[in-house]
Write a structure and sequence with these properties.
Length: about 350
């Protein structure tokens, strides 16, 4: 055996290690070029960088929200909104015992909300819902009265109202006004109130009744914003134990339909009969000032005990600019009947 020839024998390991070998080729995968105009994507960034970016965004949002709340909280006191309770109600004048007067609407009874006595603190100005005798906006006819203490009843507030003196101790009959009565044509039958009375023709005109049950008016006089008015409705004030006391509150309520600052002088206080039903009448002169001049109106409220209902109210007022129609007041009173 020649040197270097081992035949079929196994090659020693040291010989195999020294054998010449061919190196393997190196394989590389080229990376695709990034899109033109774009930098590294979010996936190329280390995760710690991504977390820092998210944390910074959340911090900016929180700081922005706190700053907005501070800016909204700052400002003038007149523009702040308090969520602790409902907005304060406008203070109502003591002359507004007619708490049940509704907003204008033919289907709304102006006396529903006034069927139970209320405290003066919850009183609402009746002029805010019922037009004045002149048809002018109610604000022109609102007559502020004294502010009673909380818990005062409607009658207690009325008895302390300087605009309305106490009723005469004894009965006093309504005087007969001079002049000629306006022509009439049948009766106004107010079924909602349960009363009927004279319907005038020609001089008096039927007007939109709402929120009353019926209404008649005299034409406006040039230079005067007030005109005669005759209306009926269930009493829009808390009903008292006697018709006399209820009539007293009703007469005070009618000041909402006279010029601001009006006061009352009683001219009549008497029991009446409206057919077979009892009633009470109060007559009074209303004193007020218009354009610096002292003026008056003669007025009457007649209450009728309507069976099973609130007493019916018939109210007529005529200013001195239409004094030639004062005798119509007597016609109205004589014609009142219960249905």
């Amino acid at each position: 055996m020649s040197p270097g020839d081992y035949g079929t024998k196994a090659v020693p390991s040291y010989v195999a290690a020294e054998a010449e070998t061919t190196p393997l080729p190196k394989i590389t995968v080229p990376e695709p070029p990034p899109p033109s105009g774009s930098g590294k994507g979010l996936g190329d960034l280390p995760m710690r960088v991504v977390y820092r970016v998210i944390a910074a965004g959340v911090a900016v949002a929180v700081v922005g929200g706190i700053g907005a709340a501070v800016l909204l909280g700052r400002g003038d006191s007149g523009s702040r909104v308090t969520a602790a309770g409902p907005p304060p109600a406008a203070s109502a004048p003591a002359g507004s015992a007619a708490t049940g007067v509704p907003s204008a609407g033919a289907s709304v009874d102006p006396t529903v909300a006034a069927s139970t006595p209320v405290t003066a603190g919850a009183a609402v100005d009746a002029a805010s819902a019922v037009p004045s005798a002149s048809g002018a906006p109610s604000s022109a006819a609102a007559t502020p009265g004294p502010t009673p203490s909380p818990g005062t009843t409607a009658m207690e507030a009325a008895l302390t109202d300087p605009r309305v003196p106490a009723l005469p101790a004894s009965d006093r009959k309504l005087r007969k006004f001079s002049g000629h009565a306006a022509p009439t044509r049948g009766l106004i039958k107010d079924k909602r109130s349960g009363v009927a009375f004279a319907r005038f023709s020609k001089l008096w005109k039927l007007a939109k009744a709402s929120p009353f049950a019926s209404r008649q008016v005299l034409p406006k006089v040039k230079g005067s914003s007030y005109q005669g008015m005759l209306v009926s409705c269930p009493v829009p004030i808390p009903v008292q134990d006697s018709l006399r006391d209820t009539a007293f509150l009703a007469a005070r309520w009618t000041l909402n339909h006279h010029p601001s600052g009006a006061t009352v002088t009683w001219t009549a206080s008497q029991k009446i009969k409206a057919g077979k039903r009892d009633g009470w009448l109060l007559g009074y002169t209303v004193h007020y000032v218009v354009k610096g001049k002292k003026r008056t109106s003669n007025a009457v409220v007649a209450l009728v005990d309507a069976r099973g209902k609130k007493p019916a109210l018939v109210f007529v007022t005529i200013p001195d600019s239409q004094r030639n129609r004062w005798h119509d007041i007597n016609v109205v009173v004589a014609s009142v009947k219960a249905l």
